[in-house]
Amino acid sequence: MSPTMAAAATGPGSAAELFLQRLEQVTADGEAGLCSLEAATALGLEHQVLVGVVKSLQSLGEVIEAEQRTSKTWELTPEGQEIIHEGSHEVRVFNSIPSEGLLQSELMKLPSGKVGFSKAMSNKWIRLDKSSENGPRIFQAVESVQDTVKEKLLQVQKGEANCLEEKDKNELKKRKLLAEVTIKTYWVKKGSVFSTTIAKQETDLTPEMIASGSWRDLKFKSYNFEALGIMPESGHLHPLLKVRTQFRQIFLEMGFTEMPTNNFIESSFWNFDALFQPQQHPARDQHDTFFMKDPAEAIDFPMDYLKRVKRVHSQGGYGSQGYKYEWKLEEARKNLLRTHTTAVSARMLYRLAQQEKFTPTKYFSIDRVFRNETLDATHLAEFHQIEGVVADYGLTLGDLMGVLKEFFTKLGITQLRFKPAYNPYTEPSMEVFSYHQGLKKWVEVGNSGVFRPEMLLPMGLPDGVSVIAWGLSLERPTMIKYGINNIRELVGHKVNLQMVYDSPLCRLDV
């Protein structure tokens, strides 16, 4: 109860004093106590207001004794109230049928048609003639009917619900005409210091009271030393960590193995060259990638594999003409902060190719990647990438779409669209879109494709082995999964939807 309400409840001439006077009156007439619900009705107050009065009086000490009681009662639903005034659905249907009958199709258009037809048929008030011209026709089967449903509801309205049999009440409840409600009331009796007037109790001892000595004549409100204080706000998991755990669980449920992603520093060879990304590609420029100064270069490579990568870049091979440029080892040796976790996938696929016998494999990773971006409202220098890779014989674009559908469905994202795209190391490639209920628009949630032979065959993977893969930013599906309302709760105030969508939290780079 607010301070204003409390003052209104306990001040002179207040609801509290009216209640105390009522309690004095009924006990003088020989009653042991007073029910708060009956008191509210007698005083013309809402019961919830009177409950607040009782709790306020309890805080004053032993003015009253109050025992909480629970009871159940039956109340009419809005539909039940409607039947009180207009009759039950089945009676309305019966009365709407003329002597020549009514087409069933026309009857079903009536407001009470569907429910009333079913109930009237079960009561055998009406009959259906399927051989009638222009379609099935409904006729009255009896001369008159009695609206027992309305009569039972009227009994409840008069407070005579106990007169109804349980099966009748349950049937009306099933039809959503009655609702069983629980009412909490208080049985109130006089306390040891009962009085019909309420003296205001002081809550603070002020310096003025001490100086004047007036505190000796004042009554102070007692302190409840057993009352619990307000629980302090405690920490909680960041939404990204929550969703990351869910992603990881989904991958594990689908039979994927997690890849080691603890090397933030990667060589250009594994980050770009092994993925059949040319050395003159714009992503390899210093404006897009963080290059390392110390150590500036990597020195340890599988040389046979490196030579095959060099040849497919500069001369072609495996059915490809390559890029026709002079591939340089100096560029491949440059160290950088990895721009995507696909560099880890390349390492794992190369390791897979070195096995004596190829075995189908499913890998996943969730970890941080880095881009040399100008920081603004929509860009950060780092974000988290989720990646899934499946290697097996004969995999197609259809397999990729099926796996993506299963993956996003487990996440709770069911509305998906696919759009053709271009990636240097996948062909065909697809962007994945999901419909965002908060923004009322389709937003990109990931990129995917089938790894090119120019990437896989130099590794030593057998002919006929395909690798499907997809990647997405952890931040974007978090936005879609949690929704705009939860994002608002996280930041603690109203936010502009487009501003949230464009923020670094929702950024996607592929």
UniProtKB/TrEMBL annotation:
UniProt-listed Enzyme Commission number(s): 6.1.1.20
Cellular component GO terms held in the UniProt record: cytosol; phenylalanine-tRNA ligase complex
Main location class: cytoplasm
Domain of life of the source: Eukaryota
Keywords: Aminoacyl-tRNA synthetase, ATP-binding, Cytoplasm, Ligase, Magnesium, Metal-binding, Nucleotide-binding, Protein biosynthesis
GO biological process: phenylalanyl-tRNA aminoacylation
Aminoacyl-transfer RNA synthetases class-II family profile domain: residues covered: 242-504
Enzyme class: ligase
Cellular localization per UniProt: Cytoplasm
Gene3D superfamilies tied to this protein: 1.10.10.2320, 1.10.10.2330, 3.30.1370.240, Bira Bifunctional Protein, Domain 2
Record-linked InterPro entries: aa-tRNA-synth_II, aa-tRNA-synth_II/BPL/LPL, Phe-tRNA-synth_IIc_asu, Phenylalanyl-tRNA_Synthase, PheRS_DBD1, PheRS_DBD2, PheRS_DBD3
Single GO molecular function: metal ion binding
One Pfam family, short name: tRNA-synt_2d
Assigned protein family: Belongs to the class-II aminoacyl-tRNA synthetase family. Phe-tRNA synthetase alpha subunit type 2 subfamily.
Identification of the protein by name: phenylalanine--tRNA ligase
Organism of derivation: Pantherophis guttatus (Corn snake)
Organism ancestry: Eukaryota, Metazoa, Chordata, Craniata, Vertebrata
